[in-house]
Amino acid sequence: MSLVQFGTNIASIRKKTVGFYNRSGSAVTVYEGMPVCYMFDTTNNILGLNKATNVKGATTPEGYQNEGKFLTVELPYTDNLLWFAGVVAAGPWCNKSIATLATRWLDIYKPNGAIVPVRASVACTTGITILSLETDSQELTQPLSANQGRPVAISEETRALSDVADASISAFSDYSGTVAGTVRATSTHLLLAGTTGVKITATADYNGTHTVTYIDSTHFYFTGTFVATETGTMSKNIDIVLARLCPSEFIYQNHTGTALSVATSLGTSDIVVNSINVTSAQTSGRFTALEVKGAMTGTGAATGYGLALYVQADVTGVLSGETAGASFWMNLTGGTQVNEIYVVEVGLYESGANLASCERISPLCVRSQLDSTNTPSDGHYMITFICDGGGDHPDGLFACNEIQDIALTGASSVTVAGKIAFKVGPPGSEQTWYIPCGTAAG
Questions:
Q1: Which of the 8 DSSP states describes residue 237?
Q2: pLDDT at residue 413 tops 50
């Protein structure tokens, strides 16, 4: 299907009529722009036909192409985020309550790349903000991993929206001495650093939707004229914003945290789920088949994962042959090479960061943990060097350039004071090599 990048007036391309089924335990209000997902696993036939017997019936068993799978939608839940159907279009069904276990026919905008109105609860910037499905949410929001967030759209309008928790405001004060033309609010809010949009109500002078700026855990400020101190409430600001529905632009292959599966009957055949295979004949400039960038700008932000890339391999079967969690190979099959060549390059560059309180910094960290009662017969090593047979052998293990000393942490790898020990060679005939260190720990 070709993408409709900027919308169209052809209704059959923009919209689709579906039945919204409320499977929750209470009534649900339908809103314009509300995200919905297909009931991909239903056996209920919304057309009232049992296709297995071609007679009137409420269900169609698996294997008989049940229309309910592509004509029935529901709110996003943990088990259906992979089956995003679109967002509710404006119509007489909006702002109407649907009883539990009831169905209501309505129109949705299909996620085909068009720019359409969506219901959102996150501060949006045109062409930048990613909007995501979230479990049990009637609006698009941030891609929170804990909520199985699935990115499906990019905002095409700037609006100060938010999903902050409701909170009371105990006082207002003049803040113009610090930031001209602003008012400070005192509240036990749950805002994060930065700015966001909230609704202020129950006041005499400050009601409305405001873009507020975090001061600390009990204060924020917004543009306005101070009149008098009073009390009020703050709440989330959820509303319509234009967005491009483009789930295909994001990689999401996840079913409720469960891995999708390939056929198990392929025997010894090679299996590749995602493949990138490109070539370039350029004579200058940079070329790469895949570029991944990740930037962290928040104060106090932390990550236990790879900032730009996190790769994990889980094994419960029995492996045959050498296996790596991630493999990197470079095949040099032609050309006269005149520059340095590395199969994997790891770099760390600092410019302007304050590292005075940083405990340790290193371009490379290698971790390993094994059950102490389950040690491999050939030993457990942090790094293994293997020189494949034939051809020229390496001139050494390391080439060091402009390194003043090598610091050592942990005494378990030290057999000679001031040196790091490496075992080199095939099993049974290893040689122990040492690298001098500036400091021997332990």
A1: B
A2: no
